[in-house]
Amino acid sequence: MTTLAEPLAGARPAPLIPTALLAVPAAALALLLAAIFSNKLWPLDFLHVAGGGLWTGIDLFMGFVVGPIMRRLDPPVRAAVMRRLMPKMMVVMPTLALTTMTAGWQLARKLGMLEMPYPRHWWLVASFVIVAVLALTAFAVLLPANVGVLLELRKEQPDGQRIQRLMSRYTACTALQGCMQIATLIVMTRLATF
Amino acid sequence: MSLACAATGVIVISAYVPRRAPLPAPVVLVALAGVFCVAAAWRGRRLVARNIARPTLVAAAIAVAFLELVFAYDGTRGAPLVLLTTAFVLVALDLPLLISTYGSTT
User: pTM (2 decimals)?
Assistant: First the structure.
């Protein structure tokens, strides 16, 4: 059996997020900038709908499918999945959220939705509140839990109980996110059909 | 708490766009966000993991720069823009603090 070479003493640990993965948000944000400055309906609509669809789809899938499955996996298998899944989630989800929100705001401005009179304007305000809840839970709970789990898994003796605690919070939050995403679908389809 | 106050302030201002929002509530919310941010920074000053905080700060700064861009590009000016900018800066400072200290306190 081949023995792997020992890492050099004082060698820097690998980054939490592989550098190559950063090309994804870089490309998405470049497209977003182009769409904002073009001020054209199609690119803004595309980024908002595609970004929102992916954000919603991934949140629902993670909350209602992957989360329950992960809870039933053996700890070593769960750890192996998390090591590969979390870095990608840490890059993809904030990028989708930012793209969707920013393109959505510009789209609403372009379509004249920001001038919508009350009481219909409350639907727009509801969308702001839902997005704020999504963003707050994502950045204040999910992302820190992601980082905490990844850092713990890199240790020689990871604390299983601490990982369990962080992952319980993570899966509970993804379920909340899933419910918020369903609320988003209701609000967005209402706004689109006024 | 700081994130929640800053986000609520942004929502209040955004809900009035393109009109000018009444400013007392957003001013109070952003001020509270600032107080909570300073308190969190003081509490977590010895727990911050710099290798996590630095890249998070860069990512947060890029994200809030985009949000700032759309409001400025759309013609938001004066006190509402100042309040929005302050709220976004607080968010950009809160996130690395929260993420880099989370592991030490959980």
Answer: 0.84
Which residue range(s) make up the domain with A164?
A: 23-192
The stretches of chain A forming alpha helices (DSSP H) are 23-38, 41-61, 67-72, 75-110, 121-137, 143-153, 160-192
Q: State residue B74 phi and psi, 5-degree precision.
A: -85, 0
- Which of A98, A125, A145 lies nearest to residue B63, judging by beta carbons? A98
Place of tokens 């006190």: B79
Which residue in B8, B19, B52 has the most chain A C-beta atoms within 10 A of its own C-beta, making it the best mutation to test that interface? B52
Q: How far apart are CA B64 and CA B85, in angstroms?
A: 9
Identify the DSSP state of A62: I
Name the residue ranges covered by the structural domains of chain B.
2-105
Total of domains in chain A:
1
CA–CA dist A182, A65 (Å, integer):
15
- Digit-coded pLDDT (tens) for A80-122: 888 888 888 888 988 999 999 999 999 999 999 988 888 999 9
Match 């809870």 to its residue by tokens.
A71
